[in-house]
Design a protein that fits this description.
heterodimer; A: about 25% strand; globular; B: mainly alpha
């Protein structure tokens, strides 16, 4: 399902999916309401991770909102889809080079942990260590899908395809595109397979590592 | 100050990763699983407490992220930057 570009410039572009219009926005174009909505979306896309901090009384949504577009974090290159009619955040996507992932994840953790009381932070770190053990290592040379999210009401409209295409456009100069997905998320796995991704991880990790090789000359 | 920071990293290794306290200055601590990202954050917190200043990992250089010398150098750069 191909999105149709309606209008656009380098900072914001208006597109259409199934007759519904949305804008794709950079983080610096977000209103406070959109920033909050985007933070809610991103939280909901990765609850097992963010809940660890929420239980440590960290204002997670505020930290996510404040991290959107911040250089050095996993959300530096985030793009937010906003419903043109309602003005609400309906989708989000963020990617980064795999060789920047370790530092960006630590920077994310630093921002999240700073909001926690010391004992709670230590407990959160223990839980995070257990969580990270469920995620296969990345190969290091690809462009990594850090977050993707679509609100329920917009699922099946092609917005997810459009957001993944935006991620793939950003990562076009790399040798491969990559992502992690939970092994039980069959809908997402099918979605990624449809876009050319294949599982390359092995073993019994809870999350799967999927990659799509890129041929720089032929892939846009 | 950079040497002092290297010593602090070694002190942290001595306390938390006893068997790796003598590794070379330029060895990547992530390689071979000596530390993970949570250890790294713990190390940065240790350095922050020791020097009385906050350190921002988001502006670290990815190519020099994991070694004792790299960590000391980048923290020192932030201290010098004010």
């Amino acid at each position: 399902m191909q999105a149709e570009r309606v209008t656009g410039d380098s900072r914001r572009s208006q597109l259409s999916c199934c007759g519904r219009r949305f804008e794709l926005l950079h983080a610096d174009s977000l209103t406070p309401l959109l920033r909050q909505g985007a933070a809610d979306l991103i939280y909901a896309a990765l609850p097992a991770y963010y809940d660890i901090f929420a239980r440590a009384s960290v204002p997670v949504r505020d930290v996510i909102g404040a991290s959107l577009g911040v250089s050095g974090t996993t959300l530096a290159s985030v793009r937010i889809a906003a419903d043109v009619e309602t003005g609400s955040a309906v989708g989000a996507v963020a990617g980064l080079p795999e060789d920047e992932l370790a530092r960006a994840q630590i920077a994310d953790l630093q921002r999240l942990i700073k909001g926690a009381e010391r004992t709670a932070a230590t407990k959160a770190q223990e839980k995070l260590r257990a969580y990270s053990g469920t995620v296969p290592a990345v190969s290091g040379d690809g462009y990594y899908l850090a977050r993707i999210a679509v609100v329920r009401d917009w699922r099946g409209t092609g917005l997810g395809d459009r957001l993944l295409e935006e991620f793939q456009r950003q990562g076009g100069g790399h040798t491969a595109l990559s992502l992690h997905v939970h092994q039980n998320n069959n809908r997402a796995i099918s979605f990624y397979r449809r876009h050319g991704y294949e599982v390359t991880s092995s073993g019994r990790a809870e999350f799967l590592y999927m990659r799509r090789p890129l041929l720089a000359a032929s892939d846009g | 100050m950079e040497n002092r920071l290297q010593e602090l990293v070694r002190q942290w290794l001595l306390e938390k990763k006893t068997q790796h306290a003598d590794i070379p200055l330029d060895q990547d601590l992530f390689e071979g699983g000596i530390i993970d990202s949570m250890d790294y954050l713990d190390l940065i917190t240790y350095l922050e407490t020791s020097i009385g200043r906050e350190v921002d990992v988001s502006i670290f250089d990815d190519s020099d992220l994991g070694s004792i010398s790299g960590i000391a150098k980048q923290v020192n750069q932030q201290l010098n930057a004010g």
